[in-house]
Amino acid sequence: MKVTLIQQDTRFADPDYNFTHISALIEEAVKAESPDVIVLPETFNTGFFPRENLASFADDDGKRTRETIGALAKKHGVNVVAGSVANRRADGVYNTALVFDREGNEIASYDKTHLFTPSGEDDFFVKGDHLTSFTLDGAKCGLIICYDIRFPELTRTLALGGMDVLFVVAQWPEPRIAHLLALSKARAIENQAFVVCCNSCGKAGGTQNGGHSSVHDPWGALLAVAGAGEEILSAACDLTVLSGIRESINVFRDRRPALYRLGAAPEDI
């Protein structure tokens, strides 16, 4: 599986520009890289995130994303993990990721479940209430958004469902970029899966996004990493190595879930 990550310099609070720009980058990526899967960053339509008039900038229940990105997936016969968008629905604005197959069909959606309280994301967005897995070209995949990666319970739940590839879409700030790389590597090793992390770059309001999108293999080896600026990054993920890794160090067989009390209060442990 060849994955191509589009590390977009997202223009803050300008969805018209961002949809036009990301479409041009997808065309460039298809021509230059011939990928199996294209991956976009978090809130590629608005940046993370305009507090004034957020709903007016948001996609209307994913309609524009489907019409624009889904159409490009169909045109080029490529799978697209369409980052995420600020997405307006009847009960509020969600941080929503959509996935399209080679025919342009929407095959999965995910609303960010862990909202970044230090920035007040929980005051402006509605929390998602479900996890998401899907299949791309025979590979079982999971999808999380940015802050979600700090919650290993989430990715382990996806891994227990047989996940081969974890897609992470982000607008992660430059001062903590070492955290993103370390967490991506850790999630790959502990879950014995490929981790494909597409971050944004450029400024979002007063925040400098850090770029450094990356692909880690299940051993934690870094297959590819971007710099700090706008970039198209590709890596080949050899899915045939998964069975050997999981057989040689079978952490899933050796788990002892009867001892794990993830929902327990500290005083109950």
Distance between the termini: 42 Å
Number of helices: 7
Element string (H = helix, E = strand): EHEHEHEEEEHEEHEHEEEEEEH
- Output the CATH topology: Nitrilase/N-carbamoyl-D-aminoacid amidohydrolase
CATH homologous superfamily, by name?
Answer: Carbon-nitrogen hydrolase
Number of strands: 16
Helix content: 25-40%
CATH class: Alpha Beta
Q: Which architecture per CATH?
A: 4-Layer Sandwich
- Specify the biggest β-sheet: 8 strands, mixed
Shape: globular
Strand-residue fraction? 25-35%
* Rg over alpha carbons: 18 Å
Number of domains: 1
Mean pLDDT: 97
- Low-pLDDT residue spans: none
Secondary-structure class: alpha/beta
Q: Would you kindly provide a written description of the structure presented here, covering whatever features stand out?
A:
This protein is an alpha/beta fold and about 270 residues long. It has helices at about 15-35, 55, 65-75, 120-125, 150-160, 175-190, 240-250; strands at about 1-5, 35-40, 60, 80, 85-90, 90-100, 105-110, 135, 140-145, 165-170, 195-200, 200-205, 205-210, 215, 220-225, 230-235. The protein has one domain (about 1-240): Nitrilase/N-carbamoyl-D-aminoacid amidohydrolase. Strands 1, 2, 3, 4, 5, 6, 7 and 16 form an 8-stranded mixed β-sheet that branches. Helix 1 runs parallel beside helix 3. The protein starts with a strand and ends in a 21-residue tail after the last helix. The model has no long low-confidence stretch (mean pLDDT about 95).
